[in-house]
User: Fold this.
Amino acid sequence: MVLIIENNFYLGNALKDLLLEISANSMLYRTAEDAINDLDFLCNHHVRAIVCNHSLPGMSGSEFIKQVKSHLKPCVCILISSTRPADIPHEAIFLEKPFVPGMLLKTIKEKTTAVQSD
Assistant:
């Protein structure tokens, strides 16, 4: 499963469609708080990757990654933003918007090659 946190309706849906290429299952949340409220459900699934917008209403994407990484144990965390935030978690890979969709897929594939299935 790929977990997507993106408040922009169009980008969130585009990311979900794009990530179907590497994962049959993905969950899209519009806020970090919504995903945290669903943490029990998410913990019962293998989260291959987290793709998270930094500029979210409420909790930032950086804070979200810091809070849930130990619970979900994703192979890769990708933080996306139009400007480079100062608080990128050391375990996250930063991609600046606009990014090439192939680069996102390549990054996830490279970091999760040992994963056989969702």
